[in-house]
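Deliverable D5.2: sample structural annotation.
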Amino acid sequence: MKNLIENYGSTMKIVIGILFIVVAIVLVFIAYKHEKSRSKNSSPVKKMTALAILSALSVLLYYFIKIPMSVFLPFMPPFLDIHFSAVPIYIAGFMFGPLSGTIVSVMRFLIKLPNSSTLGVGELADLIIALFTVITAATIYHRNKSKKAAIKALTASVFVWMLVGILSNWLVTLPFYIELYRFDAVFGMLSVIPGITEANFMLYYLIIAVIPFNLILSSLVSGITYLVYKRISVAYDKFDLKESYSKNHNEVK
């Protein structure tokens, strides 16, 4: 009976994992079609420059500005860090469309991957969350660009972030850490969670750590995006790449 339950659990995880991949591919395809159909006649060089800057900013925030969640909530495991590298991803999605947000998130993943301390698993989980959330938020926002649409899009992204965060930790991240570092080492890091035992560690980790952490982080990212996006968008619209180049070229002469 125990083996049957274990096999059922493994099969369910595989099915959910496959559904995850299928949904991600469908979302990327939707993002491509959506942005292509709504593309503006703006300068592609200007857009590429903006995406390069946003990608660089996302990577810098991913590398250097991290705050362990345990600083604020002592019952959080030490490997859960607050970082705001998703803000440039959201801004790219809001400015240009879901495909642009996807590009920035993939660039963040590829640049960070060679220096991963988790063999790429932590970065992969962050990539999955970024893809699902930015495509959701940007698609909703671009249907009707307004403050109300932005609030609706960012609120939806919080719920999507939490759902994907729960599933990715359950299916990928924690099982991988257990395989890599052994159960005793991982459980030692999780032992700060009140009431956790070897029998209930996954449930307690998801409910007491993963859900609050992702709720707080996604809400912060959404709030910051809402506050800064319009200012960045206005600055982008005012910036003329050709005019700036001509001015600098004449100054050099």
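Annotation notes: Residues 201-238 form the longest helix (38 residues). The beta strands are 67-68, 81-82.
The annotation will be released with the project's public dataset once the embargo ends.
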